[in-house]
């Protein structure tokens, strides 16, 4: 038996698993033909009255919200805004049954548990019924700071990463109220309750990796430093046909053999992205020019490095672009974690030309005895001399050997079927 910690990579609840196995119940359903995201965008922009209110916005009481709890009359509330999701029902990638869990109630928590990053505001713009009527006791959410306080001093202590801000009360005396929150000034909410924060980045370089994959270098706004922890991802957001579309991507290092990202300036992000012929987001990304802008979220994800601290052997199972989180793990294991005696990557692809950073991986393996890579192709050409086939239990048994006294850690990433199969075999 391998001593494999139960936490695999990506974690069972992480969005890195495109559809995590069982537990969280996040499963994409097969949508009827003509019900893709682009179809929804076209339908919602067609000018039809999707709320039944002919463009009017209303204040919705809790009692009113509760009444709209049927499949053919379904309202839901997210972050204080009420939407009529009846017309969206057949377009929801999570299916009708899931969406009905939100019927007639505040579904903010449910929504966030499943897909906090989904930009419902933009997708459901035409379905907006109105705002929830405020309840007497909910005023303490934020405050109109500038009418009560004035900024006095700001001290920064770079060495400890702290900022000290001193504010002065404008008028002496007790505040009678805290006022209303300014839009986006929701800093009295916990991070998990806040919508994702995006910053405007610039595409500064695009480098071809293979026939369909590129590394996109994005520059953060001037003065912004962002550290994306290993194993976490960011969300990219773009306006496509007047609707915001969001997709997650895992930053990679600039290369496999150079210094790690954290020793470089953290003002740039490198994203290795495969462009799909029918991909909504990646097709748009592929049309961007150097100098074009793109919104990038703060890092998200549940992966934690602490389980790796006492590992001696790191096994990485990747398929296709499931390679991206492995890049920084490889760097980290080889450069910063002396306890890890061996890092082995088993990399599954269809054809040889699909293998990402093939020569870099070979070079790394040739120069660092602690690193080993093996490729398995499902559709090899005649000239391929390496292994072929698909992921099976016997392939994994052969690969995941546990030397005496070792502590092995296995990370797996790829399309849903791949992560489910591999975690099934390993656990
Ligand atoms: C946490 C996380 C991190 C990710 N990191 C990366 C990354 O670093 N690099 C990267 O290229 N992608 C990554 N992805 C996948 C990415 O988010 C998008 O799903 C992908 O770019 C396709 O988006 P799209 O809008 O172009 O395609 P869509 O319009 O959503 O789909 C178009 C077609 O592509 C196929 N397709 C879409 N996504 C996948 C997939 N992941 N595997 C197999 N087929 C697929 C679908 O079958 C569909 O037919 C990550 C996904 C997750 C969940
Ligand atoms: C009301 C507004 C909602 C909108 C606009 C919405 C939109 C979406 C979108 C765009 C996806 C695809 C996600 C992706 O490709 O990454 C999705 C998937 C999904 N949704 Fe929703 N959703 C809503 C509410 C809910 C609620 C309340 C639930 C659960 C109770 C839910 C459960 C799911 C599930 C299980 C999936 C499939 C798994 C996944 O792809 O992450 N959704 N939804």
UniProtKB/TrEMBL annotation:
<dbReference type="Pfam" id="PF00173">
    <property type="entry name" value="Cyt-b5"/>
</dbReference>
<dbReference type="GO" id="GO:0004128">
    <property type="term" value="F:cytochrome-b5 reductase activity, acting on NAD(P)H"/>
</dbReference>
<keyword id="KW-0479">Metal-binding</keyword>
<feature type="region of interest" description="Disordered">
    <location>
        <begin position="1"/>
        <end position="28"/>
    </location>
</feature>
<dbReference type="InterPro" id="IPR039261">
    <property type="entry name" value="FNR_nucleotide-bd"/>
</dbReference>
<dbReference type="InterPro" id="IPR001709">
    <property type="entry name" value="Flavoprot_Pyr_Nucl_cyt_Rdtase"/>
</dbReference>
<dbReference type="InterPro" id="IPR001199">
    <property type="entry name" value="Cyt_B5-like_heme/steroid-bd"/>
</dbReference>
<dbReference type="InterPro" id="IPR018506">
    <property type="entry name" value="Cyt_B5_heme-BS"/>
</dbReference>
<dbReference type="InterPro" id="IPR017927">
    <property type="entry name" value="FAD-bd_FR_type"/>
</dbReference>
<keyword id="KW-0349">Heme</keyword>
<feature type="domain" description="FAD-binding FR-type">
    <location>
        <begin position="196"/>
        <end position="306"/>
    </location>
</feature>
<dbReference type="GO" id="GO:0005783">
    <property type="term" value="C:endoplasmic reticulum"/>
</dbReference>
<dbReference type="Pfam" id="PF00970">
    <property type="entry name" value="FAD_binding_6"/>
</dbReference>
<dbReference type="InterPro" id="IPR008333">
    <property type="entry name" value="Cbr1-like_FAD-bd_dom"/>
</dbReference>
<dbReference type="InterPro" id="IPR001433">
    <property type="entry name" value="OxRdtase_FAD/NAD-bd"/>
</dbReference>
<comment type="similarity">
    <text>Belongs to the cytochrome b5 family.</text>
</comment>
<keyword id="KW-0274">FAD</keyword>
<keyword id="KW-0408">Iron</keyword>
<dbReference type="InterPro" id="IPR017938">
    <property type="entry name" value="Riboflavin_synthase-like_b-brl"/>
</dbReference>
<dbReference type="GO" id="GO:0046872">
    <property type="term" value="F:metal ion binding"/>
</dbReference>
<keyword id="KW-0560">Oxidoreductase</keyword>
<dbReference type="InterPro" id="IPR036400">
    <property type="entry name" value="Cyt_B5-like_heme/steroid_sf"/>
</dbReference>
<dbReference type="GO" id="GO:0020037">
    <property type="term" value="F:heme binding"/>
</dbReference>
<keyword id="KW-0285">Flavoprotein</keyword>
<protein>
    <recommendedName>
        <fullName>Cytochrome-b5 reductase</fullName>
    </recommendedName>
</protein>
<dbReference type="InterPro" id="IPR051872">
    <property type="entry name" value="Cytochrome_b5/Flavoprotein_Rdt"/>
</dbReference>
<comment type="similarity">
    <text>Belongs to the flavoprotein pyridine nucleotide cytochrome reductase family.</text>
</comment>
<dbReference type="GO" id="GO:0006801">
    <property type="term" value="P:superoxide metabolic process"/>
</dbReference>
<feature type="domain" description="Cytochrome b5 heme-binding">
    <location>
        <begin position="57"/>
        <end position="133"/>
    </location>
</feature>
<feature type="compositionally biased region" description="Polar residues">
    <location>
        <begin position="1"/>
        <end position="26"/>
    </location>
</feature>
<dbReference type="Pfam" id="PF00175">
    <property type="entry name" value="NAD_binding_1"/>
</dbReference>
């Amino acid at each position: 038996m391998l001593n494999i910690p139960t936490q695999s990579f990506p974690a069972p609840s992480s969005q890195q698993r495109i559809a995590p196995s069982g537990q969280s119940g996040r499963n994409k359903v097969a949508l009827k033909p003509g019900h893709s995201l682009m179809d929804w965008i076209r339908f919602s922009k067609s000018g039809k009255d999707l709320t039944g209110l002919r463009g009017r916005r209303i204040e919705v009481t809790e009692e009113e919200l509760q009444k709209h709890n049927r499949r053919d009359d379904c309202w839901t509330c997210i972050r204080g805004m009420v939407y009529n999701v009846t017309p969206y029902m057949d377009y929801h990638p999570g299916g009708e049954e899931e969406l009905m869990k939100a019927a007639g109630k505040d579904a903010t928590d449910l929504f966030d548990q499943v897909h906090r990053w989904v930009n419902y505001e933009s997708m459901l713009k035409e379905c907006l019924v109105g705002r929830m009527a405020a309840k007497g006791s909910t005023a303490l959410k934020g405050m109109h700071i500038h009418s009560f306080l004035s900024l006095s001093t700001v001290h920064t202590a770079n060495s400890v990463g702290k900022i000290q801000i001193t504010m002065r009360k404008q008028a002496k005396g007790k505040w009678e109220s805290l006022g209303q929150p300014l839009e986006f000034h929701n800093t009295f909410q916990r991070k998990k309750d806040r919508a994702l924060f995006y910053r405007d980045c610039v595409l500064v370089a695009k480098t071809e990796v293979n026939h369909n994959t590129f590394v996109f270098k994005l520059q953060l706004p001037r003065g912004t430093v962002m550290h994306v922890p290993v194993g976490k991802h960011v969300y990219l957001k773009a306006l496509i046909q007047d609707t915001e579309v969001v997709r997650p991507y895992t930053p990679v290092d600039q290369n496999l053999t150079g210094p790690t990202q954290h020793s470089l300036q953290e003002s740039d992000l490198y994203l290795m992205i495969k462009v799909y012929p029918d991909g909504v987001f990646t097709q748009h990304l592929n049309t961007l020019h150097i100098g074009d802008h793109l919104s990038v979220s703060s890092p998200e994800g549940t992966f934690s490095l602490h389980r790796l601290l006492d590992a001696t052997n790191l096994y990485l199972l990747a398929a296709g672009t499931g390679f991206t989180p492995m890049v920084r793990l490889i760097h980290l294991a080889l450069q910063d974690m002396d306890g890890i005696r061996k890092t082995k990557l088993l990399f599954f692809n269809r054809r040889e030309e699909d293998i990402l950073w093939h020569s870099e991986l070979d070079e790394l393996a040739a120069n660092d005895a602690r690193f080993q890579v093996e490729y398995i192709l499902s559709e090899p050409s005649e000239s391929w001399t390496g292994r072929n086939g698909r992921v099976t239990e016997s392939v994994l048994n052969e690969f995941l050997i546990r030397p005496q006294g070792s502590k092995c850690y296995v990370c797996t990433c790829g399309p849903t079927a791949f992560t489910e199969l591999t975690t099934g075999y390993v656990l």
